[in-house]
Amino acid sequence: MIFEGTVHKYGRDVDTDVIIPARYLTTNDPAELAEHCMEDIDAEFVTSVQPGDIIVAHENFGCGSSREHAPVAIKASGISVVVAASFARIFYRNAINTGLPIVVCPAAATDAKMGDRLKVDLAAGTVENLTQGKTYDSEAFPPFMQELIDRGGLMEYVKAQIAAESTRD
Predict the structure, then answer these.
(1) In DSSP terms, which residues pair with 127 in a beta bridge?
(2) Residue 72 has what DSSP assignment?
(3) CA–CA separation, 102 vs 140, rounded Å?
(4) Sequence-distant (≥ 6) Cβ neighbours of residue 115 within 8 angstroms
């Protein structure tokens, strides 16, 4: 899967409370969550994000509480992929489970600037900064994780597996 979009750049230790503030956790509706995504760290995010855009951040993106609302809000806002120097472990798992592609690429995260255009190829494990003319190697998604993302997350993957099993019986 290949994504191309404009960078929304953030620093280190972006926690789940600024990705989706706790005051909005009264809903599980992705569209409602998206309306408040990143608002405590970037008040302009919800009005400037375009479908396919890319969040880029430094170390420990998604630290804090273990709520799945954070990757759901990011994905529903239109972000196609998150590139960071590193991710908090629980956020990493929640992102994959909800079908939000994430890429660990410290060099790309360091060099990217707000507004740059990136092209991310999950299968090849590359991040290309189209604005700066630089290409970075990242870890390619293993086929199983790629299938989870392609299906829209763990639940959709499991539903497809159950459906496939039922047609074989």
Answers:
(1) 120, 136
(2) H
(3) 11
(4) 6, 7, 131
Q: Output the six-digit token pair for 64.
A: 């804090």
* Confidence class for position 115, pLDDT limits 50, 70, 90: very high
Residue whose structure tokens are 């995010």: 45
Between CA 33 and CA 19 the distance in angstroms is: 10
Structure tokens at 10: 């953030």
- CA atoms of 16 and 38, how far apart (whole Å): 9
Instruction: Decide if pLDDT at 143 tops 80.
Output: yes
Per-residue pLDDT of 34-57, as tens digits, reads 999 999 999 999 999 999 999 999
- Which of 12-21, 26-35, 101-110, 155-164 is predicted least confidently? 155-164
DSSP-derived letter for residue 21 is: -
Cα atoms in the Cβ-side hemisphere of radius 13 Å centred on 3: 25
Q: 169 pLDDT band (50/70/90 cuts)?
A: low
What span, in angstroms and rounded, lies between the C-alpha atoms of 133 and 14?
27
Q: Strands of 81-84's sheet, edge to edge?
A: 102-104, 81-84, 54-57, 2-10, 117-121, 126-129, 134-137
Helix (H) or strand (E) holding 145: helix 143-151
